[in-house]
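Side project, low priority. Logging it here so it doesn't get lost.
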Amino acid sequence: MRAIDPKLPAGYTSATQQQKDTLKTYVDASWTSLVQWETQMAKIQTVVAFAKPLLEAALKRPGQVMTDEQYYADILILDEERKTILRRLCDQAMGRVASVA
């Protein structure tokens, strides 16, 4: 929304006050949703930032040997968990019923 050209559409000037008020209600709700979305997105870590401390801790355990395949599998699992959390936050911010992931 922030990149929208501020010119008024041609039909807006001929709209009734009730139509303008209804539009304002929808625009305000959209703006509120955008702010909520950006707030939630700011909380999301990258996969690397999320996974690095967990994987480093696992590698430091005595006797723990992790193959490249195990490491890659763990990264994939963590990425899926991150996506699930992101979906839930998005649904919550948008006021939707949580998606199944």
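Brief comment: The CA atoms of residues 5 and 12 lie 15 Å apart.
Revisit when time allows.
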